[in-house]
Amino acid sequence: MGFSTSNAQPATANTRLPAAAWLMAGAVLLVYVALLVLNGRDPLEGDELRYRDDVLRMQTAGFIDSAHPRLYNGPGLPLVLYPFVINDAPDWVMRLHAPLSVAAAALFLFLAARQFMPQRWALGVAGICSFHPSLMHQGWHLMPEPLAHLFMSIFLWCVIHAVQSARWWSKWHWGAMLAYFVLTMVRTVWGPVMMVTLLLGPLFMILPTWRKPARTLLLVMSGVMVLCVPFLHYTYVKTGRPLLWTSLTGELAYWMTSAEDGENGHWYSDDMVFNDPVLNARHGPYLREVYQKPQLECDQLMLHEAFRRAKANPSATAYNYLCNWCRFFFGFPRSLEHERVSTLVLLFYNGLLLAALAMGIVIALLRKQTLPIVLGLLLLPTMIYLGSNTLLSTQPRYFLGIMPIVVLLTFTLLSKARWSALLERAAENPQPVTSVS
After folding, report:
1. Taking the domains of the chain in order of start, what are their residue ranges?
2. Quick one: pLDDT band at residue 43, thresholds 50, 70, 90?
């Protein structure tokens, strides 16, 4: 299996959407609006309250309060919610951004996939992504995943065209740069991913056939870095820490290294800890002590405690790390909890997806297929994202960040296989049946 290096525009490189794509996006919107109608009357809870509170704080102390600086998330979603919160819009109205984002993302995913495969396969890419179980769970909540899913889809559509473009800079470069910037402001984990990509990306420049496509990706990421400078300057002024993307690293590292009896690195909120007798006995005294500190100091203390525990018990930390990979894709194991029905759904959905990806890779290797070089380039930020999310305590919804790229790669591989020839060969050479006397 190799990567094709031609940068010519394919025959399908247009922005027109057929009726089938619009119908599919309409179906996606109806499904998610139905989920919102059925569940959206519930009051805001958990992280939803934090995003609303971010807007309220913007009106007085700014996005980061100088007196109590903390950085749990980027300003992307709070800025979207700002006009609704200040006008006291109902909760369901604020949540409406999620169904609209998922439906719009389906159209952009179709356009991106259409560059590499027939229409029916491109519809499959958009459908598989749109109805992913984790996305359907988040798709009616006041959470960043639907909005991040939309801008990841826009980024894929634009960066594919940018790599194919014969110009060193075009409207597609602008689109990819702006989409990734917004994605970073919604989910700040993509900021460190961008920085590491800028560090490792020049290695692709060594290969002559990869030089121009790699330059395109590096130009886009460099532009994103420039756009992020005001945000990073703001966080530095408010916190005194350079290149600060989040102040939750210590908490996630603390739970990642938690190896008490029955624990395996699964994350718990403070409410969960204080309301559970077992967790409260193990972690309550320490957490109550550090939570009295300023948030940035608390983050540092928990990070030091995580390093201490990892050094004291490296085998348990390694085990938690392996569990983290399983949690990232399938949502289990969960410390001190029985597994949920949602775990079986994720195991089935993501299991089939990963199995299809493996099958596509095997077929591509056997047939010595070539793939668009842009997919090879996108594997770099994908693997960086995967590595950064599995180093700390993770959750299955984080898989949504790279899910469109995984699905796009899987369907590109499978769509290039000659299925009719494979089926005919299987029919002509049936497996012999051995009788047992």
Report:
1. 13-416
2. confident
**Calpha distance 226→198 (Å, rounded):** 12
Q: Compute CA 58 distance to the chain's CA centroid, rounded to the nearest angstrom.
A: 26
CA 230 to chain centre: 24
Least confident among 252-261, 332-341, 386-395: 332-341
> In the predicted model, what is the mean pLDDT of the chain?
89
Rounded CA separation 410/416 (Å): 10
Sequence-ordered alpha helix ranges (H) in 240-294: 249-256, 270-275, 277-290
User: Do 153 and 105 contact (CB within 8 A), yes or no?
Assistant: yes
pLDDT mean over 117-124: 95
Q: Please answer whether residues 139 and 102 qualify as being in contact, where contact means their C-beta atoms are separated by less than 8 angstroms.
A: yes
- Mean pLDDT of the 16-35 span: 94
How buried is residue 409: exposed, middle or buried, by Cβ count under 10 Å (0-12/13-18/19+)? buried
Contact of 172 with 359, CB cutoff 8 Å = no
| Burial zone of 313 (CB within 10 Å; 0-12 exposed, 13-18 middle, 19+ buried) | middle
Of 253, 237, 242, 235, nearest in space to 290 by CA: 253
Shortest CA distance to 407 belongs to which of 106, 194, 35? 106
Contact 40, 111 (CB under 8 A): no
Residue 244 near residue 236 (C-beta atoms within 8 A): yes
Is 234 in contact with 58 (CB distance < 8 Å)?
A: no
Pairwise CA distance, residues 142 & 63, whole Å:
18
**For residues 189 and 385, is the Cβ–Cβ distance under 8 A?**
yes
Position 435 pLDDT exceeds 70: no
The verdict on pTM exceeding 0.90 is yes
Reading the block at residue 185, the tokens are 């402001």
When computed from its CA atoms, the radius of gyration of the chain, rounded to whole angstroms, is 23
